[in-house]
Amino acid sequence: MTTTAVTENGAALALDGVSRAYGRGAPALDGVDLVVPRGRFVAVMGRSGSGKSTLLRCAAGLERPTAGRVRIGGTDLATLKAAGLTRLRRDRIGFVFQSLNLVSALNVRENVTLPLLLAGAREGRALDARALAGLDAVGLADRAEDRPENLSGGQRQRVAIARALVNEPEVVFADEPTAALDPVTAAGVLALLRRAVDERGRTVVLVTHDPVAATWTDEAVFLDRGRIVGRLDRPDETAVREALGAHAETGRHLAVAR
Ligand SMILES: Nc1ncnc2c1ncn2[C@@H]1O[C@H](COP(=O)(O)OP(=O)(O)OP(=O)(O)O)[C@@H](O)[C@H]1O
């Protein structure tokens, strides 16, 4: 399946001319168009300050764009009031963010059941079984009763992935989930996201600086000063490094020219 063959209506996520400005300076996002079909794994890349996290926050309904339209599974986020947006984030989106980490007062199993409880599920065996199945899928069923603080960084990210997937969300947003991990542990985390796409038809949008991480995805899009300046299908490491280098060069060149 190619991106171009998919209409916005059938997409898991569609951004249409999305801009986000903070104050009077240059916008952090500047007219971004992005269509992510269901069952696709997309990397958002670009140098520091290029707008990756802003794109993610706007796409996930954590922040309102100043212009343009974001749709998740056909729902235009602009039509939702704050409570509706909260429900959408809770019920239809999965997050694997460094900053939205696990709740230390809860054990691993309780952390995974949290999105289900927040969505109105009742506590009980069925709920626990679902959490345990999710933990089993990330190889951590035997750590269910542990506290997050007793887990390694990689294990915590795997719990975060189990938690992000437990609601069967339409889109999973992951912001640098492997940044603090060694390469082998990072590969394990990325393999889990890949499996969620391949085996469960999930849609994943991953913000990353890491060219190796991008090789796990179906498509890499490159941001520079808030605009999409390039795309690679089935990115390989060399092509990603070249693309990042080329855009960094352009940025430097423009910075000098100014
Ligand atoms: N809340 C905010 N208030 C003001 N400016 C912001 C805010 N958030 C982001 N920006 C600015 O928007 C631009 C894009 O920031 P963003 O965090 O999206 O970049 P990024 O590509 O994710 O960077 P990094 O890789 O360093 O995390 C930057 O110039 C940043 O300073």
What structural class should be given to the helix and strand makeup? Answer: alpha/beta
Most strands sheet: 6 strands, mixed
Figure out the total of helices: 8
What value does the Rg take, in angstroms? 18 Å
Spatial strand order of the main sheet: 6-7-8-3-9-10
The count of DSSP E runs of length 2 or more, i.e. the number of strands, is 10
Ligand roster: adenosine-5'-triphosphate
Strand content: 15-25%
Which ranges are low-confidence, i.e. pLDDT below 50, for 5 or more consecutive residues? 1-6, 251-258
User: Residue share in helices?
Assistant: 25-40%
Oligomer: single chain
What is the average per-residue confidence, as pLDDT, rounded to a whole number? 89
Compute the separation of the termini in Å: 41 Å
Specify the overall morphology.
Answer: globular
- Helices and strands, in N-to-C order? EEEHEEHEHHHEHEHEEH
Protein name: ABC transporter ATP-binding protein
Pfam family, one: ABC_tran
GO molecular function: ATP binding
Domain ABC transporter: 13-250
